Amino acid sequence: MNTYRVEVELDRRFPDDDEIDTIMDRLHEFDGTIGSNPGAGPVMSMFVPAESARQAVVMGESIAREFGEAVSIEALRADLWEKREGWEPIPELMSVTEVAEDLGVSRQRVQVMIDTGKVPAKKVGKTWVVAKSSLGALREARGTR
Q1: Rounded distance, CA 77 to CA 100, Å?
Q2: Mind listing the pLDDT tens digit for each residue in 31-63?
Q3: Nearest to residue 96, comparing CAs of 117, 74, 119, 125?
Q4: Hey, is 19 helix, strand or coil?
Q5: CA distance 113 to 139
Q6: What is the pTM of this model?
């Protein structure tokens, strides 16, 4: 099962505020939005689970049908859509405490490893975070998980 981003353009005027609320309530479970393109009708965007692009189109159209006739429908696997938009996946991050537990060392030892560059880390606000994927080689060298 994949997730697809489906955009459905409707053949109608843009909805008023009350109808926008109704549409957004319907799209909520699909992380959906409604917007417009210049010179076009309203466009409903949503993320739907589907086995294929065809199934995603059918699902998107059936949701949009409640609010108007579709004049165009586009479905693209979410990972490809994110790549097209230039979005990079956010790696799984770990705190200094989590890294220490994972490696079986103290928090202070992890902080020293960060300070000396043995563990790549970034500061987010006042907190250091480490990409979980960067610990693989360090685990092997230490003989841990």
Answers
A1: 37
A2: 999 998 887 889 999 999 999 999 999 999 999
A3: 119
A4: helix
A5: 13
A6: 0.62
